[in-house]
């Protein structure tokens, strides 16, 4: 195929993984073209809270938190029951801290440790980092401003439709514009950071049927284009049943209720007023108990104290501004709001308070040693279960190089972010909070440096 032009490194996908990969390659000396399917870059990152988990950062050290790559790796393998790819997990754990510090020191990104987020849901240390009072959309805008500053060319809107190569090497790509016209572009190395496939209902049903009924709360462009094209070229796939589910998407507002609401003492009840799960066991896996409730909905109950502890999070304020948060002064008012029996609701809250007062676990097995249940007046948020993003994709090695089904690896094809196999194991139960963005940025940095080395060599 004749290419209209060629560039040493092409990155497909303009979310955090792709932008970090492009910036890393460019600052390592490579000429880079970033291709984005949408008219403005958003991706999964823009739909997120903008939090990444990272271990051994300077921010942690300043806060007196003893954490390192070995501890994060151990947490990943424990949460995934040893089923995560150890090579990828090791690479992510090792790269996460340096990548977070690189964001701050080299790019000037105002990343800080979220000291309001307790170590929970599989994290043994406080290691969630973000831009205070800002979310993922702000991260994407910041990174794209840096792309312009550093001389990375961005082609958008342009959708990847074909990989051109001989089986061992990718010579270039074909992209399609909104008017149907196509362009063939050659490359020395190609990084696929084009997202997962959570918006592809057919593939979700095929690979994770238990989540087929869940609402999709993610980017509508996550159709898995890069994954399927890579597979057609001979790439191996891994953990295709893995995804981040979430049980607390405000319904119908579509705003995420922060997990800290539960960690600080919030509870979840169904429309009958009954609790049905231990709210602090698995923030991602709790989506399935919620989906199993009558009408597939539930109510998050909290109080003013819990709301205040989470007030610094943008989603908390968005929930309040949207009217998603309602107040009830007693069990009768709350029951009327939910449609439940007042006596059932009163008993539900009383059981939690009795357990907390006695220092024992409640009927759901929740230990209240570190939190207090909601007190009147109670705040209530109607929620549903959703799938946010997938965690399976192209099989990669520790340098983000894509592996082939025959056991070899491509000479110049790399992947990161949602297009690559992550570190959440084979299913829903292995996801660690903020690991999606954490692994995207960590492997994006690795992919960019690897691509620059390939083209320089």
CATH superfamily of the largest domain: FAD/NAD(P)-binding domain
Structurally, the number of domains stands at 2
Share in helix: 25-40%
**Radius of gyration, CA atoms, in whole angstroms:** 22 Å
Tell me the number of helical segments per DSSP (H or I, 4 or more residues long).
Answer: 15
Can you summarize the main beta sheet?
8 strands, mixed
Q: Please mark out the parts with pLDDT under 50 across 5 or more consecutive residues, or reply none.
A: none
Judged by helices, strands and strand pairing, the structural class is: alpha/beta
Strand fraction? 15-25%
The pLDDT mean sits at: 95
What is the CATH level 1 assignment of the largest domain? Answer: Alpha Beta
Q: In total, how many beta strands? A: 19
Q: In one word, what is the shape?
A: elongated
- Straight-line distance between termini: 24 Å
CATH topology of the largest domain: FAD/NAD(P)-binding domain
Please tell me the CATH architecture of the largest domain by its name. 3-Layer(bba) Sandwich
Describe the model.
There is one protein chain. By secondary structure, the protein is of the alpha/beta class. The chain has two domains: 5-242 and 391-456, FAD/NAD(P)-binding domain (3-Layer(bba) Sandwich), CATH 3.50.50; 244-387, Flavocytochrome C3, Chain A, domain 1 (Alpha-Beta Complex), CATH 3.90.700.10. It contains 15 helices and 19 strands. It has helices at residues 16-27, 43-46, 58-62, 69-79, 86-105, 136-150, 201-207, 225-232, 260-263, 287-291, 304-309, 314-322, 331-338, 342-358, 435-456; strands at residues 5-12, 32-35, 52-53, 112-113, 128-130, 153-155, 159-165, 170-176, 182-192, 215-216, 237-238, 243-250, 267-269, 297-302, 326-328, 378-390, 393-394, 401-403, 409-415. The strands form four sheets. Strands 1, 2, 6, 7, 8, 9, 18 and 19 form an eight-stranded mixed sheet that branches. Helix 1 (16-27) links the parallel strand 1 (5-12) and strand 2. Helix 4 packs across helix 5 (86-105) and helix 5 crosses helix 15. The chain is elongated, with a radius of gyration of 22 Å. The two termini are 24 Å apart. The model has no long low-confidence stretch (mean pLDDT 95).
């Amino acid at each position: 195929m004749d290419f209209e032009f060629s560039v040493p490194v092409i990155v497909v996908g303009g979310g955090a993984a792709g932008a970090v990969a492009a910036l890393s390659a460019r600052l390592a000396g490579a000429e880079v073209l970033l291709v984005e399917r949408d008219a403005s870059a958003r991706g999964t990152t823009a739909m997120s809270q903008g939090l990444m988990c990272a271990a051994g950062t300077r921010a942690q050290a300043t806060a007196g938190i003893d954490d390192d790559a070995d501890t994060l790796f151990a947490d990943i393998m424990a949460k995934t029951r040893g089923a995560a790819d150890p090579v990828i997990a090791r690479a992510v754990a090792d790269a996460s801290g340096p990548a977070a510090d690189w964001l701050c020191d080299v790019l000037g990104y105002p990343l800080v440790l979220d000291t309001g987020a307790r170590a929970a849901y599989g994290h043994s240390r406080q290691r969630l980092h973000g831009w205070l009072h800002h979310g993922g959309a702000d991260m994407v805008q910041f990174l794209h401003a840096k792309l312009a500053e550093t001389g990375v060319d961005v082609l958008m809107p342009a959708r990847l439709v074909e990989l051109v190569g001989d089986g061992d090497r990718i010579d270039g790509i074909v992209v399609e514009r909104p008017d149907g016209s196509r362009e063939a572009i050659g490359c020395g190395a190609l990084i696929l950071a084009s997202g997962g496939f959570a918006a592809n209902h057919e593939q979700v049903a095929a690979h994770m049927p238990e989540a087929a009924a869940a609402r999709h709360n993610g980017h509508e462009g996550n159709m898995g284009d890069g994954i399927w094209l890579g597979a057609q070229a001979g790439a191996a796939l891994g953990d295709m049943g893995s995804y981040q589910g979430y049980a607390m998407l405000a319904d119908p507002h579509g705003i995420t209720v922060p997990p800290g609401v539960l960690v600080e003492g919030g509870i979840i009840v169904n429309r009958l007023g009954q609790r049905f799960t231990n709210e602090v066991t698995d923030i991602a896996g709790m989506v399935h108990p919620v989906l199993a409730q009558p009408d597939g909905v539930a109510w998050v109950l909290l109080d003013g104290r819990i709301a205040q502890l989470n007030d610094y999070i943008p989603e908390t304020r968005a929930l309040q501004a949207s009217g998603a948060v309602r107040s009830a002064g007693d069990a009768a008012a709350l029951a009327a709001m939910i449609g439940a029996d007042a006596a059932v609701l009163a008993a539900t809250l009383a059981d939690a308070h009795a357990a907390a007062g006695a220092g024992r676990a409640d009927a759901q097995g929740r230990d209240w040693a570190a939190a207090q249940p909601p007190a009147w007046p109670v705040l209530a948020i109607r929620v549903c279960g959703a799938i946010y993003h997938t965690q399976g994709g192209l099989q990669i090695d520790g340098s983000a190089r894509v592996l082939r089904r025959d056991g070899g690896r491509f000479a110049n094809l790399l992947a990161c972010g949602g297009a690559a196999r992550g570190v959440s194991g084979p299913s829903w139960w292995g996801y660690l909070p903020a690991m999606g963005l954490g692994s995207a940025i960590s492997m994006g940095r690795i992919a960019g440096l690897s691509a620059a080395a390939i083209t320089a060599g």
